[in-house]
Amino acid sequence: MANVLVLAPHADDETLGAGGTIAKHLDEGDDVAVVIATGPGNASDGHPLFTQEEFDTVRSEASRALKGLGVSRLTFGDLPAVTYPQQPVWQVNKEVHRLIAEHEPEILYVPFPFDLHGDHRSLFHAASVAWRPNTEMGQRIKRVLAYEVQSETHWNVPYLEPGFTPNIWVSLNESQLERKLEALGCYASQMYPFPHARSVKAVEHLARWRGSQQGLEAAEGFVLIKETW
């Protein structure tokens, strides 16, 4: 049994990027935890862009989605969404280190470092500080994989910086794919009708496409960042 942690910038990223893989880990008896790193923050005058009600709504949706996937360990961080990349880097690194250390993972899933969204980039880089090889945490974490998030990963400018090209494919059976899609259905505030990239139909199409790249019915694609064995 492996200790697995899925580190997400925002609620829904974890399911968009690795929902089927979460289901597969659980089917194989692994211990899976999810950390959603951002929230309203602690500014005395509230978040500048989102209301507390909006945060409460999406966190409730995340709880239902992940319960449906079978995840029993869900942690919400409180880095201020959208604005935390403007915080001192050492503060972000310290908080992300704390969030990862609480779960002592051996396998870590993180956002792709060249996603369009600054929160995704900042979270990846803070996590990479945590898994430095000369640290206890870095020695414990044996495998790090970056996932793709529709409407962020594919909206960067791939001819100016690296685009997402998977080199790891996780095969999904129909049950695992269906559980992912059902979990995304819990995110009423975050999902959109097709042909939006963040629609249940588009997510299924991507899973079928990733599967077809390896002769599979369905899959999720990842970029391998680190592996020691």
From TrEMBL:
Arranged from A to Z, the UniProt key words for this protein are: Zinc
Record bears the keyword Zinc = yes
Q: Which InterPro entries match?
A: GlcNAc_PI_deacetylase-related (IPR003737), LmbE-like_dom_sf (IPR024078)
Q: A biological process (GO) annotation for this entry?
A: glycoside metabolic process
Gene3D superfamilies given for it? LmbE-like
Q: Which GO terms describe its molecular function?
A: hydrolase activity, acting on carbon-nitrogen (but not peptide) bonds, in linear amides
What is this protein's name?
A: PIG-L family deacetylase
Q: What is the lineage of its organism?
A: Bacteria, Bacillati, Actinomycetota, Actinomycetes, Micrococcales
